[in-house]
Design a protein that fits this description.
By secondary structure, the protein is of the alpha/beta class. The chain has helices spanning 13-20, 47-56, 85-93, 119-150, 154-171, 184-193, 217-226, 238-246, 250-260, 266-277, 302-309, 311-315, 325-331, 334-339; strands at residues 2-6, 38-43, 60-62, 65-70, 97-103, 201-206, 233-236, 280-286, 290-297, 317-323, 344-346, 357-362. Helices cover 43% and strands 19% of the residues. It is flat.
């Protein structure tokens, strides 16, 4: 599962990517410096891991991760191949969610591709290019399905009707994610269409250092614009975040954050939001060899969660031994959890909850 960072050139995408990952994308003051998409595997900050480590004292700790993709800046006309449009749009299509970076700071030394700072216009520029690309995809698919629909094929008729609803939304400059599937068939079709604007999105307002804690007028404009999109808006001083990552010690970073009025780096907030946007959650395994966070889709069953560790665990699944994270912390050990009667044995139908501490029994 990958979240792609998109935006116009020079809004801070590559600098943000550098903050989030150990990979170092080229960061320069001109468009198209990120030609190939850079992929960073980023640890998901989770304070629960520190608590489990304290209780279990394992030999090692392994965090959950999320893949972040740095995609080069889109420009007007990208849907028709302007700039490096086709390649960039293809890279976005391969991602599961979109992190849309908007420039919300003034700085005469950093060129804006459209001449002045206006996050509302910038958002609309990107949205229109993505919507135009999706409109092209929808119309090509409609051409194919109409022939089958005319023969009385019920599945084709369902698809044609759904495509027409999406086409109508796109023509009104609305993204495909605003069209709600009416049933499981339409849900499956929406997934099959692989439309760029059907992907979940969160907005990152890149602000100056002084606005890191409270935001600014640009941020308020963005919040007002997206209030009906059911999308999260995160305020991040990307340049300042880059400075924080350069500091050597935890104490130095903490002091820097306190001076800004922040409890934790904005990058940590963003990574957790991206993880949630991808509809991911975490369960833990906890033993003296290793405390580990495992990533599963929200709604995953116990056998599916077991399969994340090894396919044999899923094939030969017998049962899952489960302790809720809060119970583990309250009682301090597996043995004490059992004494308190909070240790559970679950079968194949069990839906994993975020924070479950799990152990699997299997036989292959």
């Amino acid at each position: 599962m990958k979240a792609g960072i998109v935006g116009l050139p020079n809004v801070g995408k590559s600098t943000l990517f550098n903050c989030l990952s150990n990979a170092k994308a080229q960061s320069a003051n001109f468009p198209f410096c990120t030609i190939e998409p850079n992929i960073g595997v980023v640890n998901v900050p989770d304070p629960r891991m520190a608590k489990l480590e304290e209780l279990v004292k394992p030999e090692r700790v392994v965090m959950a991760t999320v893949d972040i993709v740095d995609i080069a800046g889109l420009v007007k006309g990208a849907s028709k191949g302007e700039g490096l449009g086709n390649q960039f749009l293809g890279n976005i299509r391969e991602c599961n969610a979109i992190i849309h970076v908007l420039r919300c700071f003034d700085n005469d030394n950093i060129v804006h591709v459209d001449g002045n700072v206006n996050p509302i216009r910038d958002k609309e520029t990107i949205d229109i290019e993505l919507q135009l690309k999706d409109l092209d995809t929808v119309e090509k698919r409609l051409e194919k399905v109409k022939r089958a629909a005319k023969t009385g094929n019920k599945e084709a008729q369902t698809e044609e009707a759904f495509l027409n609803r999406i086409r109508e939304a796109l023509l009104q400059a609305k993204s495909a994610r605003t069209v709600q599937p009416n049933n499981v068939d339409e849900e499956a079709l929406m997934e099959d269409f692989q439309l760029i604007t059907s992907k979940p999105v969160l907005y990152v307002c890149n602000v100056d250092e002084g606005s890191a804690a409270t935001g600014n007028a640009y941020v308020e404009q963005v919040r007002e614009l997206v209030k009906d999109e059911n999308a999260e808006v995160i305020v991040l001083a990307v340049g300042t975040e880059a400075d924080i990552t350069e500091l050597e010690t935890y104490e130095e970073r903490k002091m820097f954050l306190e001076d800004l009025g922040l409890d934790e780096p904005g990058a940590s907030v963003l990574i957790r939001a991206a993880y949630k946007l991808l509809k991911q959650q975490t369960y833990f395994t906890a033993g003296v060899k290793e405390v580990r966070a495992w990533t599963v889709n929200i709604g995953a069953t116990a056998p599916q969660a077991a399969g994340v560790i090894h396919t044999d665990f899923e094939k030969g699944f017998i049962r899952a031994e489960v302790i809720a994270y809060d119970d583990y912390v309250q009682y301090g050990s597996e043995a004490k959890v059992k004494e308190a009667g909070k240790f559970r044995v679950e079968g194949k139908e069990y839906i994993v909850k975020d924070g479950d501490v799990m152990h699997f029994r299997f036989n292959v």
